[in-house]
Amino acid sequence: MALRDCKQVDFPKITDPRGNLTFIEGMNHIPFDIKRVYYLYDVPGGAERGGHAHRNLQQIIIAMSGSFDLILDDGTEKKVYSLNRSYRGIYIASMTWRELGNFSSGAVCLVLASQAYDESDYIREYSEFLEVAGGK
Ligand code: TYD
């Protein structure tokens, strides 16, 4: 179910010979208020991030610079997104297992999150994720 709720979102892009500009408003371009922003950078070649799901958190992931792959998994099916556009985000619904890898040199992964950091919201064991996702 969660994978069907995840989607690609192209944000407004103001093109300008001086450089392009993209903006994102909570509850307008994305379906939640932004409570937290974090970013991954200086990712060494071959490193993988993610490897968890969130019980309630919703997120948007954007390749601000460079490129990387995002693998989403709802416990039934998987989908791979190759991100390399600064104006494009992937909305990740709650209860979606995510993995990030194949980072290019200099890649920056921006994450917009619906809640403050809360370790108890994480599911870090895939077996537990499958149990919760399956409603067992
Ligand atoms: P984690 O979410 O596991 O990283 P990723 O999914 O990108 O591989 O977080 C890594 C560490 O950073 C973990 O110890 C928790 C900490 N952390 C915070 O303290 N605040 C935050 O907002 C985030 C996202 C992580």
Automatic annotation (TrEMBL):
Keywords on record = Isomerase
UniProt-listed Gene3D superfamilies: Jelly Rolls
- Which SUPFAM superfamilies did the record assign? RmlC-like cupins
Q: Which GO terms of the molecular function aspect are on file?
A: isomerase activity
The record's section on InterPro entries has: QdtA_cupin_dom, RmlC-like_jellyroll, RmlC_Cupin_sf
Metal-binding among keywords: no
* Residues of the Sugar 3,4-ketoisomerase QdtA cupin domain: 5-132
EC number(s) given by UniProt:
5.3.2.3
What's the name of the protein?
TDP-4-oxo-6-deoxy-alpha-D-glucose-3, 4-oxoisomerase
Which source organism does the UniProt entry give?
bioreactor metagenome
The record lists the lineage as: unclassified sequences, metagenomes, ecological metagenomes
